[in-house]
Design goal:
By secondary structure, the protein is an alpha+beta fold. Helix content is 31%, strand content 28%. Strands 2-3-1-4 form a four-stranded antiparallel β-sheet. The model has no long low-confidence stretch (mean pLDDT 89).
Length: 108
């Protein structure tokens, strides 16, 4: 490895609780707190240059993903496991190596 960051993607799947992706009434107060922590954590990682893109399909059927950079697969796995959604068990996540090929220019 040349020291250049590698790119990874993790995709969320359902956790142990209710189907939070499709049923907004299933969210508890604690789930909302974890969501706020998840969003703040990803926003900070994006501002620091780690997260390239994060988002989800609003229909609850399509994917929810985070694309990011890490120095190794081990570091990437730790980053994914530190995501509050994963750490608190709201959602499972699968890690995959990824390569961003095209990115829209700013202001487009």
């Amino acid at each position: 490895m040349t020291g250049e960051p590698m790119q990874f993607l993790y995709q969320f799947g359902p956790g142990e609780g209710p189907e939070l992706a499709t049923d907004p009434t299933a969210w508890t107060e604690e789930d909302e707190r974890v969501f706020d922590a998840h969003y703040s954590w990803l926003r900070r990682a994006a501002e620091e240059g780690t997260v390239i893109l994060a988002g989800r399909s609003p229909d609850g059927v399509g994917p929810a993903i985070v694309i990011f950079e890490a120095k190794s697969e081990e570091e990437a796995r730790q980053f994914m496991q530190d995501d509050p959604f994963v750490r608190h068990g709201l959602f499972r996540a699968e890690l995959h190596p990824f390569r961003v090929a095209l990115v829209r220019e700013s202001g487009s």
